[in-house]
Amino acid sequence: MGNIGTMIKRFLSNKNTVTLIAIIVCTVVLYGFYNWRVKSAVTTTYVCQATQTIPARTQITNEMVTTTKILSSQKADNMIQTCDKVVGQYASYATEIPENSFFYETSVMDASEMPNSSFDDIPDGHTLYNMSVSFESTYANSIFPGDYIDLFVRTEDEMGLLVYGKFIQSIKVLAVKDDQGQNVFETTIEKRIPKQLLFAVPDDLYLLLKKAELLGIQIVIVPRNKNYTAEAGETLKSSAWLEQLIIDQTADIPDECVTNSTGIADCQLADDIDDDNNDDDQSNMNE
To answer: If we measure between CA atoms, which residue out of 122, 133, 116, 115 comes closest to residue 171?
Structure first.
């Protein structure tokens, strides 16, 4: 045993021997790492692929899809692998799916998730507003459905001074359409120029906004960042002073219509309504 120990000590004390061992170990490690990288690079997996261009809002059928092999390194986390999860679903209403492209979780929707029209997203007590826009006013077509925006106004006061300020805040964009009424972001094949921006505001703000438009007051779209959209608050007017500026230039409609039990609208002037109320009050006092 002593001789064996002595031989090992002499063997390890030889610098050439130690260097040789180190080289061998490093070579084995490098080879193992290289072999692992090569295997990882050539490992394949299967994903679902479109065999044709699928327009937005189209239900996906078996004829539209196929399974194809790709490198595992090319697969994204939200890529759909099995076509069973795609067939029967719908291409997203926001964009089409190009031929030979892969399917992603954000590109397909269940029927229950598909909005039928922009009117479906209008809350109670709100009115849809259709605002004329251009490529420039939408910041080079950078405003998307679901984004929240603010509206500013530009006009002059009675002294001719420039007035520019925030008018209405936190408005959700429902749709962006071209001059043919088509959704701008439904396709990547053709370039569509935005002409209409659709959103809904509370009924009183709709009336105020429409008055401003008809007065010729310039309404300016101001986009915000993702956090503004994610933390969107209630749609509100931002300035009582601007509201009064518009009201001072318009007249109120002095009548009120009430639908009676027969289904016929009974309309009266505001002065008549006040007179009727006064008569009722006087009758109650006499009784």
So the answer is: 122
- Tens digits of residue pLDDT in 78-111: 899 999 999 999 888 777 899 999 999 888 988 7
Integer CA distances (angstroms), 175 to 186, 226, 286, in order: 11, 17, 59
> 171 with 201: CB under 8 angstroms?
yes
Give which of 202, 28, 70 is closest to 129, Cα–Cα: 202
Q: Which two tokens stand for residue 56?
A: 């937005």
CA angle (77 as vertex; 146, 85 as ends), nearest 5: 80
Q: Are 34 and 56 in contact (CB under 8 A)?
A: no
In sequence order, which residues have a C-beta less than 8 Å from that of residue 229 and are 6 or more positions away? Answer: 146, 147, 148
Assigned CATH topology for domain 44-113: Type Iii Antifreeze Protein Isoform Hplc 12 (3.90.1210)
In single-letter form, the type of residue at position 112 comes to S
> Pick the residue with more confidence: 254 or 272?
254
How many other CB atoms are found less than 10 A from the CB of residue 65? Answer: 21
What is the four-CA torsion angle of 57, 63, 68, 74, rounded to 10 degrees?
Answer: -10
pLDDT tens figures, 205-259: 999 999 999 999 999 999 999 999 999 899 999 999 999 999 999 998 776 676 6
DSSP 215: T
Q: Which two tokens stand for residue 285?
A: 């006092």
**pTM exceeds cut of 0.90:** no
User: Could you tell me if 171 and 221 are in contact, meaning their C-beta atoms sit under 8 angstroms apart?
Assistant: no
Residue 12, both tokens? 């390890």
Considering only CA atoms, which of 52, 39, 91, 44 is closest in space to residue 69?
44
Exposure class string for 173-199: b at 16+ Cβ within 10 A, else e: bbbbbbeeeebbbbbeeeebebbbbbb
